[in-house]
């Protein structure tokens, strides 16, 4: 996983395949989805906690299921390690985390391959293009704090909801390479064989945003991603592009001394790698939100809904902030005084216009990438 609406704003304060073997031998899921809530609504069709008879009844139903399947959530990604631990300890529900380093598309692939199995993902955390191309797989649900979420960051029926966002950045080991001050710097010979992009931009949201960042830096835009593809072609021709998906292990071992990734992922390495620094290029401010959704065929439908409630609660949102991402309810929480000041205070300061691609722009860019990316880095 290591996977926006063009908008210009003055500032923006501050997601896998389960092994095929498992798919083959996984037992059929329990008939939880066929059960009903105290109000007579099918659990798999509940659209709010009220359909369970209130939050306490939702909690009880989720505890009765006893498990939750998540997918493509690395512990270092948006503080998901701590989030999963907190949820599990709070409700006594076992969280099964499959293939942490999977991409957004692999999440969808897994749900299709595992459909009807107890191992299928209950919930998704997806990049925009993959999320909006698969809304027919999602179950509408509105969390208790749904009203706090800006309209442009959620489906009105709760089919999907943005959960957190961040900025595209460049992380680098200053003990191994010269300081990076701009996207253009990456073409210099000092970075020969050292620049890694987090994923394949035709499949992963983070990599897509990395190419968009390069496009903006080269005079392109969310409407014209070609300059970004051309930039990576030049990077490859110069021998600077490193075709290796970066992970904490490759960063810490020095295999990937320069990484293009979300600021919150690059930022986690600062505490592990002496000399690791992160910049959000001022000439190419690109932001993006991830999409949270419930699998309509979730084997644990009540737990899936309780997970959503937790993520969008003050507790869950503050845990996101501690991971260096901007929680979707940030503005409301700051006004209400429920934001963790220390966590929010560490989010990157941004000064300048920010690019967030719309779905139309993303679709157009994805088509261009499908036609040109492989050749550019081949």
UniProtKB/TrEMBL annotation:
Keyword Transport: no
Biased composition (Polar residues): 98-117
Signal sequence residues: 1-26
Molecular function via GO: thiamine binding; thiamine pyrophosphate binding
Gene3D superfamilies in UniProt: Periplasmic binding protein-like II
PANTHER family, sorted: ABC TRANSPORTER SUBSTRATE-BINDING PROTEIN, THIAMINE-BINDING PERIPLASMIC PROTEIN-RELATED
Region of interest (Disordered), residue spans: 98-120
Superkingdom as given in the UniProt entry: Bacteria
A Pfam family recorded for this sequence: SBP_bac_6
Protein's name according to its UniProt entry: Polyamine/opine/phosphonate ABC transporter periplasmic ligand-binding protein
Assigned keywords, A-Z: Signal
GO cellular component, one term: outer membrane-bounded periplasmic space
Gene Ontology BP terms: thiamine transport
């Amino acid at each position: 996983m290591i996977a926006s609406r063009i908008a210009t704003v003055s500032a923006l304060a501050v997601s896998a395949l389960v092994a095929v073997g498992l798919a083959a031998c996984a037992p059929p899921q329990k008939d939880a989805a066929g059960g009903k809530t105290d109000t007579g609504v099918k659990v798999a069709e509940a659209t709010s906690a009220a359909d369970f008879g209130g939050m306490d009844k939702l909690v009880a139903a989720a505890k009765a299921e006893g498990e939750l399947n998540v997918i493509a959530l690395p512990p270092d990604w948006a503080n998901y390690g701590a989030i999963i631990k907190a949820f599990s300890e709070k409700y006594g529900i076992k969280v099964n985390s499959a293939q942490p380093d999977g991409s957004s598309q692999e999440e969808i692939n897994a749900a299709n391959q595992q459909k009807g199995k107890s191992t299928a993902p209950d919930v998704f955390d997806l990049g925009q293009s993959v999320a909006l191309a698969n809304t027919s797989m999602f179950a509408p649900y509105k969390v208790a704090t749904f009203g706090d979420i800006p309209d442009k960051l959620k489906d009105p029926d709760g089919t999907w909801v943005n959960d957190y966002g961040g900025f595209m950045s460049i992380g680098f080991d200053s003990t191994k390479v010269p300081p990076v001050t701009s996207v253009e710097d990456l073409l210099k010979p000092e970075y020969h064989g050292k620049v890694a992009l987090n994923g394949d931009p035709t499949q992963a949201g983070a990599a897509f945003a990395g190419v968009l960042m390069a496009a903006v830096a080269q005079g392109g835009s969310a409407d014209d991603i070609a300059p970004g593809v051309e930039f990576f072609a030049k990077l490859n021709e110069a021998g600077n592009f490193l075709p290796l998906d970066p992970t904490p292990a490759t960063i810490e071992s020095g295999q990937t001394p320069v990484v293009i990734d979300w600021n919150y992922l690059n930022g986690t390495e600062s505490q592990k790698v002496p000399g690791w620094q992160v910049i959000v290029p001022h000439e190419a401010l690109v932001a993006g939100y991830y999409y949270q959704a419930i699998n309509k065929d979730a084997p644990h439908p009540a737990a899936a809904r309780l997970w959503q409630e937790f993520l969008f609660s003050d507790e869950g949102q503050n845990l996101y902030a501690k991971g260096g991402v901007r929680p979707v309810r940030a503005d409301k929480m700051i006004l209400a005084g429920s934001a963790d000041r220390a966590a929010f205070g560490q989010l990157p300061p941004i000064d300048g216009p920010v690019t967030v691609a719309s779905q139309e722009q993303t679709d157009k860019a994805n088509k261009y990438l499908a036609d040109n990316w492989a050749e550019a880095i081949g």
